Amino acid sequence: MSALRRLSEEGRHTDAGAATLAIMLWAYLLDEDDPGDFRLLLSERRGTPVPDADWEEARRHLLKRIADLLHALDVRAGRDVLDAWETAWAVECEAPVIVPSDADPDGLVPLGPVAGYLVRHGRGGDLLHAYALRHPDLGGWSADSSGHRACADALARALAERGRDRVRAGQWSEALTDFSTAARLGRTLGAEDEAAVLRCARNVGRSRTGHGNSPVTRIHGLELAHALLPRDTSVAAELTAELVEQGRRVFQSDPPQSRKRFARALKVTPRDRDARAGLDDHVKADLRRVLDAGDRETKLRVGEVQGILRRDPEFAPARRWLGDYYVEQAVTAALRGRVPAARAAVRKLLQYDGPAGLPHGDVYVDQVLVDLLVGAARRTDTEDERVNLERRVKLLSTAEAVESPAPSSHVREQLDTAVLLLAEHLETTASPSDVIELFLQDHMRIGVSARFDHTVEAAYLNRARERERAGDLGGAQRDRACAGRIGAGLSPQGLLFGPGSHKPRHDDTGQEALF
To answer: Taking the CA atoms of the chain, what radius of gyration do you get in angstroms?
Structure first.
């Protein structure tokens, strides 16, 4: 006792090493089994044995004096129950376990034995209070975390006990939080715990009078209860009904939140009709906005719309949207050269927006695809005229390729017109090389349009002059030769640059000589 007082006077009363040594010595000397023969030592010094009653009374008195002194030092140092000398002394007296603490350098004993002692002696609340001050993030309390593993069992037991106390006090949300954290720390709920959770589920977010009810609190509490009792159908039904009710309540005022409520309800109870109907109503509203109001911000998923049509085959907006969707898919795939994918999209289109009872063979599918491409070529997507003209040429060229080997004259005529318009636009807004590049794509042959021939010839001559100014005499000479052949109508003669690599679409006029 005097040694401890001297440590206190020297300011060493918070020295964990010194306290550990003192507690070990006291516990050793005062142990019930008297391993140090302390009682015998006293008997020898007194010259007479120490009576049992006197020994026990003195031992209890000394234990209390030590505990009181340690408590006073703990209060002075501001130590909590997890690293208090008083707690370490009590733990050692109960079962000698003192070892250097690896988990908490400020503690006298490891946290695991301390936490277990506090719970066993009805001080779970003190344990939780001190532990929460050190670890305020309750969501991080988990048996999987190395920082919490040492005292996870004791914490879980303390939380369950506090949860039951809170149920008796009507603190439903707080109790569910305690049970949820206890489960995360590895506790398996017993029958008493499950009954308490069910009682919370019936009452959370509700008041006896109905005033002050909180739907948000109730949904959160029911989510915790459902996670704790996933097989309990009554909790799942309560949660589903509450989610559906709140989804309907904010259907107009907060559509995203409403959609989340319905989706969650459907996940809790996959076949719930009310939840499915709520989600379907949102998709139907989106369809009407997209189709009737031209809302481009709202994004729809094809699976959602197909589901609507399966459940409500008479809902025309869904069929119309799917038709538009597969038209776009077909045109986009064809533009990218993926003709098989474009044909597959056309078949889907015919499934939702095609004539009933007619065969959908390959020829019919190709004709529909050609019509879609020709129709798309009439539309303009941007304000950039060059982009629109190039897209039109690409669409009509693809349509002609789909119709091969016997393309229709109306597609060919539209393609020729589009190529001419693009060439004239490039002549006035771009470089001669852009016009020549269009010509070399072989969309139109020499001799079909005199205006096109003249435009290409002029492009070669203009580029020849540019090359002469740049000192590229060989390139200028080749451009002039090409211009001469175009001006002469490409009369048959030897190829300029080797054999051609493109299929002729018209009678051979000798244009292969320019490739």
So the answer is: 44
CA 29, CA 4: separation in Å to the nearest integer? 16
List, in sequence order, the alpha helices (H) in 204-338: 215-228, 233-249, 255-268, 273-292, 302-311, 316-335
**Tokens representing 121?**
């002696």
Q: How far apart are the first and last CA of the chain?
A: 108
Tell me, what DSSP letter sits at residue 189? P
CA distance 281 to 287: 10
Amino acid at 366: D
Contact 146, 135 (CB under 8 A): no
- Confidence band for 186, pLDDT divided at 50, 70 and 90: very high
Return the structure tokens found at 179: 């049970």
Backbone angles phi, psi at 114, to 5 degrees: -65, -50
pTM of the model: 0.70
- Write the DSSP assignment of 79-139 as a string of letters: --TTT-HHHHHHHHHHS------SS-TT-SS-HHHHHHHHHHTT-HHHHHHHHHHH---GG
Q: How many CA atoms lie within 13 A of 387 on its CB side?
A: 5
Q: Spell 272-288 as b/e; 16+ CB within 10 A means b.
A: bebbbebbbbbbbebbe
pLDDT in tens, 58-101: 888 888 888 888 888 788 878 889 888 888 888 877 776 555 44
Residue 183's pLDDT is 95
